[in-house]
Amino acid sequence: MARPSEIAKRVFDVVASGAGLLLIWPVLLVFYVAARVSSGGGGFYVQDRVGRGGAVFGMLKFRTMRAGHVHDPDPSIVISPDHEAVTSVGRFLRKYKLDELPQLLHVLSGRMSLVGPRPTVPEQVADYDDFQRRRLEVLPGITGLAQTNGDTALTWDERIAWDVYYVDHRSFGTDLGILLRTFVVLARGAERVARRLEEVHPEAGARPRATGGGEESDEQ
User: 124-150 pLDDT, tens per residue?
Assistant: First the structure.
């Protein structure tokens, strides 16, 4: 049976994502058209990601790179904002994480949550050890503790530690705090708010080093 906090989380996800989509759909349409025109391809980019329990789904983003760009097969590669294949529209969308907004549809459908570990690609998950695999115990999120405490300014090990800490200490109140902190991070920049788990929660202790990881794979 679902815990009351999990029920509250799901209700909040449905209400917030549904209301958000209704309120900003004109903006989403503008971003879609801009992404389509600037990239020379479709307005959406779809990539396989792994969700709760190892379920694979096609995660939506607004396309931020020119169509036809040949991606690197290494899932640990993250494309920098100044990469020649990133469009001017794409740079703007990436800077403010607006390319992630289509994932509200996944939240509404129940494949994702507003808050949780970011979903990674199957190639990364295949190399997870038992500690890393704990990220899959909850729904993946649009934002999470790793994103609000440094994101890619942290090492992969540090991000994993934050994600597993979330799995063990998640609550509806924690989710609300993460959502509020997300706006602070967007305003200040991830590098300026980077914090290691042991700095904030010394009682958490040292976490095992991750193996076979890397940064979250980005659009190619």
Answer: 999 999 999 999 999 999 999 999 999
> Is the Cβ–Cβ distance between 165 and 204 less than 8 Å?
yes
Residue 214 lies in a domain: no
Q: Which long-range contacts (CB under 8 A, 24 or more apart) does 191-195 make?
A: 191/150, 191/153, 193/148, 193/149, 193/150, 194/149, 194/150, 194/151, 194/153, 194/154, 195/149, 195/150
For residue 188, give both structure tokens: 């200040």
pLDDT for 192 equals 85
In a domain, 212, yes or no: no
Which pLDDT value is given to residue 25?
A: 97
Full domain range(s) for residue 60: 4-202
Phi then psi for residue 45, to 5 deg, are: -115, 130
Mean pLDDT of 100-118: 98
For residue 178, give Cα distances in angstroms to 25, 68, 145, 189.
Answer: 24, 36, 7, 15
Predicted pLDDT at 211: 45
Assigned domain for 15 exists:
yes
Closest to 74 (Cα-Cα) out of 213, 197, 182: 213
Contact 212, 128 (CB under 8 A): yes
Count: domains in the chain: 1
